[in-house]
Design brief:
Length: 338
Amino acid sequence: MDRPTAGRAAVIAGLGAYVPERVVTNDMLAEHLDTSDEWIRTRTGISTRHVVEPGTATSDLAVEAGARALKSAGGLTPDVLVLATTTPDRPCPGTAPDVAARLGLGRIPAFDVSAVCTGFLYALATGAGFIASGLAERVLVVAAEAFTTILNPADRTTSVIFGDGAGAVLLRAGDPAEPGAVKALDLGSDGTGRDLITVPAGGSAQRSTGLPAKPADTYFQMDGKPVFMNAVLHMTASSKKVLDEIGWQVSDVDAFVGHQANLRILHAVADRLKIPREKAVVNVDRVANTAGASIPLALADAAADGTLRPGDRVLMTAFGGGLTWGSTAVEWPGIEAG
Ligand code: COA
């Protein structure tokens, strides 16, 4: 490595998001599931979600969001692409190379990151690491999920919670003090909780038994209550670590962008951090839980509707399967979502 890297930071220079057109309401789900609009809204805060049509895959969402982030970045081109997804187009190969090719990015390094709902922050950390080390000048970080494709249509406990979508940021090398610089990152995992959020079949563990998979095991499964508790615990603790590291008081936070899993979880984390609930960016009501894509989608919505203004101090935190969690903070740059 021949480039000086001391004092380099990854700076958010572009932002893009995309959701598929089809909107599914709670009432539409209640037509074939034993559930109701009232239950879903009061337990989760969700009213609608966007759902892919058959034939649309994660890569299609990723290409749309990636192209918008590149447009927002005003023509900067990445030399690495990192894609966070729980729903790759195929078990093998990774989906990122296809996304890079379809975005016309040539033969740049492109690979997938798997951290479920924490995927965007893990991918952001990976991209920031490439930049900090001097291995890259610009990294396109995409998080895309066709999450509804892995839901069990007969399982009301999971089918009502998730939606599809994608978000992306373009990171460029810059100064740690400039707006948009990724200030600190806290990441963690606890594999003892691997069974709380899982698709049990389809990987090497199940295949190596040689036995046919139970149909329910080929779908996403979640143990909602412990997931709820762990989400609140880890997002709160991780957020505190980031605030401590960068020296922000809770009152310094202008916008709290938590993983959009459930409005009750968002409020519980805000309450524990003593951040007023009005500072929590919320779009879970419209897009539901889009897993790894949730934070960049929330950022894009908040930037578009004026909730996020240049200079705002933004705290982001997420929790997901693995178990995994993470947090980061930025001073919002003067960019518009593409
Ligand atoms: N419609 C109607 N009733 C439902 C339902 C649905 N879609 N899903 C579950 N229920 C029922 C349950 O069967 C249960 O009935 P019972 O009391 O007769 O047994 C009742 O509602 C309460 O279920 P419970 O699981 O206690 O509800 P909850 O308040 O914990 O809410 C979740 C369930 C899934 C919304 C909540 O646990 C949650 O949000 N967990 C975290 C999920 C998440 O965010 N995952 C992603 C993490 S990154």
